[in-house]
Design a protein that fits this description.
The chain is an alpha/beta fold. The protein contains 17 helices and ten strands. The protein has two domains: about 300 residues, NAD(P)-binding Rossmann-like Domain (Rossmann fold); about 110 residues, Dihydrodipicolinate Reductase, domain 2 (2-Layer Sandwich), CATH 3.30.360. The strands form two sheets. A six-stranded parallel β-sheet has the order 2-1-3-4-5-10, sandwiched between helices. The mean pLDDT is about 95. Bound molecules: nicotinamide-adenine-dinucleotide.
């Protein structure tokens, strides 16, 4: 069979800026990790762009290159870091403060991390109640702040002689905001910025600034941010790649593996109780009910979409689903996520599954930041504008085209990601049907 035509992709020449609004635990673990990998001090475990292979053609062809040898990704050596934070700590101080990495590991790259100084943030405590910021921009209107962010991006590109940049939101989770009239189109959005409308959160100012400066924007938190019509129109108009929301790392990662298993086997679900304890700054921010609400919405949607209770009312029509997050300082970044899952099988007999995931939040999130940055840059160079649904693999609450349901099943997401890479390079998509055996 003839292969499809590869999509034209601009080569990743020159340096790539990776900007993170937020330079806390996740962002600094990402930056320190990439630098340690570049120096040969550590392995990029958890990153598909660095470690995964991709099967091409029929199984009998035995072609399975590394993804990074198959698609033209930016090299780690070409990545330059930048970020914004309302706390003035450089990446070295912030990494130490976050307490994720061992002191020696941070020390080994101290001069490098110290050079990454945060730019002043567009910050407002109204949106992140449990945080006090001193390193913040001043401006009469939200539009002024957005213009300052745009200038930061231009300066960052110029100073570091970058050929292009991408942004991955690694800042705190903001209070819950519903899409409203201000988010309808570019005009309403800009007017709302001019009159300091409360429905324009700081994260939206970053997204707006990035899109206006041709910088793809990936959203690692559950905030609305780019997931409103005005931003999506802007992304399409300016032909910029966007994606989100909320890194899928711990408990929800497990959920999106276990729930498809239940559905695949037509096992019923009575209830799913998820609770977490964590003691990092993210935990402290989420201790505020308004920020927690944003996170809760993001975590709750998953089961409904995977299990489709309307199609299977006997199995999933009456699920009790509860998610709790409790701030518990002694654990720091080492989160514990418990799940109690009440299922039922043949003739309705009940059973239970217990999951206790003693994970490390930022250790799970850092490789996702790297993959999103490199894939967003690839998408941009390949002219793929708007929502990058093929990156749903990385998100708890994936953005989807208007009117469509997001895909949550991790393995469907993985297939979609790899098939998109095959499509980009003009390789046949793989359906795993194995038909070739029957044809031979
Ligand atoms: N596994 C994970 O760690 C995981 C998973 C999913 C989502 N997330 C999300 O990723 C984000 C980062 O997590 P973290 O553990 O690094 O949190 P963190 O609290 O350590 O870091 C967040 C940083 O963002 C800064 N910030 C807040 N508002 C800002 C603004 N307007 N502009 C710029 N910076 C701002 C804070 O000062 C802080 O330094 C959070 O929103 C979290 O919910 C993390």
């Amino acid at each position: 069979m003839k292969s499809p035509t590869p999509r034209p992709i601009r080569s990743p020449e020159g340096r790539l800026g990776v900007l993170t609004p937020g330079m806390g635990a996740v962002a600094t673990t990402f930056m320190a990790g990439v630098e340690s990998v570049r120096r040969g001090l550590a392995q990029p475990i958890g990153s598909l762009t660095q470690m995964a292979t991709i099967r091409l053609g029929k199984r009998t062809e035995r072609r399975a290159p590394l993804i990074k040898d198959f698609v033209p990704l930016a090299e780690l050596d070409d990545v330059v870091f930048g970020g914004w934070d309302p706390i003035p700590d450089d990446a070295y101080t912030a990494a130490k403060q976050a307490g994720v990495l061992e002191k020696e590991q941070i020390q080994a790259i101290a001069p490098f991390l110290k050079k990454i100084q945060p730019m002043t943030a567009a910050f407002d405590q109204h949106y992140v109640k449990n945080l006090q910021g001193t390193h913040v921009k001043k401006g009469k209107t939200k539009r002024d702040l957005a213009e300052q962010l745009r200038q930061d991006i231009r300066d960052f590109k110029k100073t570091h002689k970058l050929s292009r940049a991408v942004a991955v939101w690694c800042a705190s989770t903001e209070i819950f905001i519903r899409p409203g009239p201000a988010h309808k189109n570019l005009k309403t959005l800009e007017k709302a910025m001019d009159r300091n409308d409360p429905s324009i959160a700081p994260s939206m100012l970053y997204a707006y600034a990035c899109l206006m400066e041709d910088v793809p924007f990936m959203n690692g938190a559950p905030n609305l941010t780019v997931d409103v019509p005005a931003m999506l129109d802007l992304a399409r108009e300016r032909e910029i790649a966007v994606g989100g929301k909320d890194f899928k790392t711990g408990q929800t990662l497990m959920k999106t593996v276990l729930a498809p298993m239940l559905k695949a086997r037509m096992l019923g679900l009575a209830g799913w109780y998820s609770t977490n304890i964590l003691g990092n700054r993210d935990g402290e921010v989420l201790d505020d009910p308004e920020s927690f609400k944003t996170k809760e919405e993001s975590k709750l949607g998953v089961l409904e979409h995977i299990l489709q209770p309307s199609l299977y009312p006997e199995l999933y029509g009456n699920i009790y689903h509860k998610v709790r997050i409790n701030y518990y300082p002694p654990r720091g970044d080492n989160k514990e996520g418990w799940d109690n899952i009440d299922i039922f099988g043949w003739l309705g007999y009940p059973m239970q599954i217990k999951v206790d995931f003693l994970c490390r939040d930022s250790i799970l999130a850092a490789p996702i930041v790297l993959d999103l940055a490199l894939f967003a840059d690839l998408a941009q160079r390949a002219g793929m504008k708007g929502i990058q649904e093929w990156l749903s693999f990385y998100f708890k609450s994936p953005m989807a085209a208007r009117g469509l349901n997001p895909e949550h099943d991790l393995f469907i997401q993985q297939t979609k990601l790899k098939n998109t890479l095959r499509y980009l390079m003009g390789e046949e998509q793989i359906t795993h049907l194995g038909i070739e055996y029957y044809e031979e």
